[in-house]
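Notes from hallway chat w/ T.B., transcribed later so I don't forget. T.B. wanted the structure written out for a chain they're using in a teaching module, and asked if we could keep both sequence and structure tokens in one place. Agreed to drop them here.
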Amino acid sequence: MRLARVAFAGEAFWALVNADSSRLQRIRAPFAQWAAECAQGETSALQLDDASLAVSDCQWLPPLEPGARVFGVGLNYLTHLQRLGSVAPEHTLAYIKPESAMVGAYDDIQYPALTAELDYEIELVAVVARPLGDEPRASACLLGYTCGNDISARDAGRHIGRLDLLTQKAMDRTTPVGPWIVTLDQIGVDQPQLDLCLSVNGQLRQEDNTRQMIFPVDELLNFLDARIELRPGDLIFTGSTHGVGLETGRFLRPGDLIEASIDGIGTLSNRVGTPRQLSPARAEGRLGGPREHG
């Protein structure tokens, strides 16, 4: 099944999307009450409204439960690392994104004022249904998967010669995700083997399959949960493959249309907005470099 978070008449809520994506039914039950059951295709816990709504009357929101966290991991496709002159790492690199970074499947992406190298990264995104606990197979605790585009400011931190993940990965309204979650029973507990691709203005830039991950989903979940206990609703971006602008120097520009698709899940279609302008007071914090102390 497909589960989405939408807005209608000033309210945001979870909904069950019908087979042809034309209508949806509002879910009244709390997320934690139905997520684990829905992972196996059960709808009895949803408390669905009898009446349905036209999808065209609703706004697609990021499929993120309020209060849940968004985690990202990197260094997870060998071809991407090889094109950057690197090798497979011993373990992954992880970070956290704020909720304010997220946008819906068809929303504009904000072009931050702090970068001139805005990049795209299509990623499979895992959605947690229940705590991992002592479950021997971490992915069995998922609700399902959705599609993400982990937009990055590649020049972040360059002026100080250090990695700056806050600027690179966390800026407001830069990370599309959605349009819905496809439940685990539709994809399977084993490592997903899904084709993914991303184009910019109709030109194919990224194409691969999720079976090429260096660290499979189970390992990523265990890595994160050992540090921060995962909770129902948390999202995990699982890394991106080759073809990004960092490899070629072809970065995003205002007005670009990015289309990111994962087989069996769906498509994101987002346009890059005009560059955000900083007020003079905010511009003082643009670089965030070292200060002299007297």
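Follow-up for T.B.: Residues 289-294 have pLDDT under 50 and may be disordered. Might be a good example for the class.
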